[in-house]
Design brief:
Blueprint: E1 7-9, E2 12-14, E3 23-28, E4 32-38, E5 45-51, E6 59-62, H1 69-75
Antiparallel strand pairs: 1-2, 3-4, 4-5, 5-6
GO molecular function: phosphatidylinositol-3,5-bisphosphate 5-phosphatase activity
InterPro entries: Fig4-like (IPR043573)
Keywords: Hydrolase
Amino acid sequence: METMSAKSDNNATCLPIISWVQKIALYETKARLFIIGSNNTQTRFRVLKIDRTEAKELNVIDDKLEYNQQEIRELL
């Protein structure tokens, strides 16, 4: 199995939080869309939030956090 490591290009360093996003789910409320990405065993999650309240401007939030299953339930 191939693993991802830190990659450096000049002044930028990229560190993967989840090496494989294998499942994606979309949840919606009146105010937001939540795109939830997880590993295959659904033990590690990342969240992308899209604000729907501002009609003229796209507001996408990636908080750069890794969540567990309980934290995702509480968030949604």
